[in-house]
Design a protein that fits this description.
Blueprint: H1 19-39, E1 40-45, E2 56-60, H2 67-77, E3 82-87, H3 94-102, E4 106-108, H4 115-127, E5 131-133, H5 154-162, E6 165-172, H6 174-177, E7 191-197, H7 213-235
Helix pairs in contact: 1-2, 5-7
Length: 283
């Protein structure tokens, strides 16, 4: 693996992005980057594997609510504008919603009724050379040890529908600074976050396939195996033989499953609120 700064920044700029949107990205980065630099140290690996002249799909692991900042920071620093697929409820909040809309992030309706609009928006980003970030788990992992859990089919559907490269990105350490469902940052001692970019996932076997349930689930399995293997290397540990399946543990497929700040006890299942950064799935 190569360390931070060993790869040249991507010279390519997305086409069709308005000056206003670029300025909004710069404004958000101007706030988020100094904050993250204070809270955590960072070490990035594999930056040379990021596609340089085309749009692509990023599929990260998801273990804490600050994951989007961690991944977005890395991409933005390489001159890549990150566009996250996020649940539509976040876009209706006063401050965060305005920020998401200004930076042209992509809303996803949980019901699936708006999935077509999300695909169109994602295709426009990819055609313009941007990066679409979608968490294949659909929400924060429920695995007690924060390993990737069973994936949902949104990333596979997007990949099959667009033909874009799927680039796995794994990270570890952010959960020490902001544990899953925490109420605040743990600043001292200063934590370090490691981010690793992998080679594009080989999904050639599915080229030309129809987006039926079996195909999407098979593609999702390939994606999740790639992410899990990379995280094993990063953590220096072995993941469970089978990915955590929320339905097998009577857990909802999205939304918080413990109260903020809880020590692992199960909380009553509630409808997703607009206070999390969890992302949606293309149904």
């Amino acid at each position: 693996m190569t360390g931070q700064g060993s790869a040249p920044k991507r010279p390519f700029k997305p086409k069709g992005m308005s000056l206003g949107t670029r300025m909004f990205f710069a404004l958000l980065a101007g706030v988020a980057r100094p904050l993250m630099n204070v809270v955590v140290g960072k070490e990035w690996h594999g930056l040379e594997k990021l596609p340089r002249d085309e749009g692509f799909i990023v599929v990260p692991n998801h273990c804490t609510e600050i994951d989007p900042i961690v991944v977005g920071h890395m991409l933005y620093n390489q001159n890549i504008m990150p566009h996250f697929l996020a649940k539509d409820g976040l876009f209706r909040t006063p401050v965060l919603g305005a920020a998401l809309r200004g930076a042209k992030q992509i809303p996803v309706e949980r019901s699936g009724a708006g999935a077509g609009k999300s695909l169109i928006a994602a295709q426009e980003v990819l055609d313009g050379g941007g990066a679409v970030v979608i968490y294949p788990e659909g929400t924060l992992t429920r695995d007690p040890e924060l390993w990737p859990m069973k994936g949902r089919t949104g990333a596979a559907r997007l990949a099959l529908g667009t033909g874009a490269k799927v680039v796995p990105v794994v990270h570890w350490g952010a959960q020490e600074a902001f544990p899953r469902y925490a109420k605040s940052f743990k600043i001292f001692p200063r934590k370090k976050v490691h981010v690793v970019v992998g080679d594009p996932i080989d999904l050639g076997a599915f080229a030309g396939s129809t987006a039926d349930k079996a195909t999407l689930e098979a593609m999702t399995d390939v994606i999740m195996k790639a992410i899990t293997a990379m995280l094993e290397d990063l953590r220096g540990e072995k993941a469970p033989a089978e990915l955590w399946d929320p339905s097998a543990h009577q857990q909802a497929s999205h939304g918080r499953f413990v109260e903020r700040g809880a020590k692992g006890e199960e909380a009553p299942q509630t409808k997703n609120d607009a206070g999390t950064t969890e992302t949606g799935d293309l149904q």
